[in-house]
Specification:
This protein is α/β, with parallel strands linked by helices. It has helices spanning 22-31, 50-57, 74-81, 92-99, 106-113, 126-130, 132-143, 169-181, 215-226, 248-258, 303-314, 330-341, 382-394; strands spanning 8-13, 35-40, 84-90, 118-122, 147-148, 152-155, 161-165, 190-195, 200-201, 207-208, 230-235, 243-244, 264-267, 274-276, 297-299, 319-326, 345-350, 362-369, 374-381. It starts with 7 loop residues before the first strand and ends in a 5-residue tail after the last helix.
């Protein structure tokens, strides 16, 4: 699953039997967070209803020209709003109109005004597909940077066997996704992020943990995905698509299983320093008359230091970014920690401040690097802090 939040996808549906398949395409974009708007030609209504597409897209469906709710002409406003235009199915009629600049309905008018990527997924009878005029028109559109997702071969609705069946919605979606993410600064990067506070069980009822909410790790994961990265999130707090763990030992196992293949690891989770030596199998009862209970704690593995040592031993190219939450002497403790752990960067934040501490939606951090450099990022939302951190790690523009 990818993150297309903030993207608007315009889906054009023309009058062919494959129009019903556009319903699943709309659902795929919606499931991945995109805002979806649909344009139908009047003939497309013969194959799929306006109400169906309206419910699936959760937006009004545009069909007729000159239905203007405000001062902006609809074909211009739709073209301005969308990041990509996917026409599926694209009939021979619509393909020919687009190739010759004919704007006799809302869909073709929008396409004429559209300056961002346009994807055409043709569907038609095999003899129509092989028609030299249609092939010339497709060639012309391809030269104009339209992306053509060619139809598949098989049994067609008209009873013929041959090429003309709409390409799979998975292939159309993947083509659109590649266009939407082509220029993202972290495209191709693989990033591992840990989030949340670990839970160390005392008995089946009680545990030792900390106040970490996981918000900083989640902000990093969301921002990195939006910038094109492939993100593996290991979390103690429920999150869509995350690898769920509970204890420090479980987190260590998952981190060790994944980190060597990553471009970067962000150890944003608050890992408990100690765990109970022996976890009780049954709930510990109040013993008669005593007001005290003694728990023996043992040290948890230092996951950050462990992966830093492995990186050094194996000469891995992965960048390792640690986090430290301090209640006093922030920079003194942070400098000591980055030296001891051996990580490439350390993100230090002051948890004594209520406005940026655990559970807050905002943060203020210092970024320390292995060469002794320190840079402060002023108070901002955790998503903006995440973007600034990623910008500095890769020394690139994330706007």
């Amino acid at each position: 699953m990818c993150n297309l939040s903030g993207k608007t996808v315009l889906i054009g549906i023309t009058g062919g039997i494959a129009a019903y398949k556009a319903c699943e395409l709309v659902r795929m974009f919606k499931r991945n967070g995109a805002n979806v708007k649909v344009i139908m030609t009047p003939n497309a209504l013969n194959f799929v209803t306006e109400l169906t597409l309206q419910n699936l897209s959760q937006n009004n469906v545009a069909i007729h020209e000159f239905e203007i709710d405000d001062f902006k002409p609809e074909h211009i406003s739709l073209a301005d709003e969308a990041d990509i235009f996917v026409i599926a199915p694209a009939t021979a009629n619509t393909i020919s109109k687009l190739a010759n600049g004919i704007c006799d309905n809302l869909l073709t008018s929008v396409a004429c005004a559209f300056k961002k990527p346009v994807i055409l997924a043709p569907a038609m009878n095999c003899n129509m597909w092989e028609n030299k005029i249609i092939q010339e028109n497709l060639k012309k559109l391809a030269e104009l940077n339209y992306k053509i997702v060619e139809p598949e071969s098989g049994f067609l609705a008209c009873g013929y066997e041959g090429q003309g069946r709409l390409a799979s919605v998975d292939k159309i979606f993947e083509t659109a996704l590649n266009e939407l993410t082509a220029n993202l600064p972290l495209k191709g990067k693989k990033i591992l992020i840990t989030a949340g506070g670990t839970i160390e069980e005392i008995d089946p009822v009680r545990y030792i943990s900390n106040y970490s909410s996981g918000k900083m790790g989640f902000a990093l994961a969301k921002t990195a995905k939006n910038l094109g990265a492939e993100v593996t999130l290991i979390s103690t707090v429920p999150a869509a698509g995350a690898v769920m763990v509970k204890s420090a030992l479980e987190m260590q196992k998952e981190v060790l299983a994944h980190f060597e293949n990553m471009d970067a690891v962000f150890m944003a989770a608050a890992v408990a320093d100690f765990r109970v030596k022996e976890t009780a199998e049954q709930k510990i009862k109040k013993s008669g008359g005593t007001d005290e209970i003694t728990l023996t704690l043992v040290k948890n593995p230092d996951i950050l230091k462990t992966i830093c040592n492995i990186k050094k031993e194996k000469h891995l190219g992965v960048q390792i970014i640690g986090f430290c939450a301090e209640s006093e002497n922030l920079l003194t403790n942070a400098k000591e920690k980055i030296s001891q752990k051996g990580c490439d960067y350390l993100i230090a934040n002051d948890i004594s401040r209520k406005d940026i501490g655990f559970g807050s939606d905002e943060n203020e951090v210092h970024i320390l690097n292995a060469n002794g450099g320190i840079e402060k990022i002023e108070k901002a939302s955790k998503e903006n802090i995440a973007k600034e951190i990623l910008k500095r790690i890769w020394s690139t523009n994330m706007n």
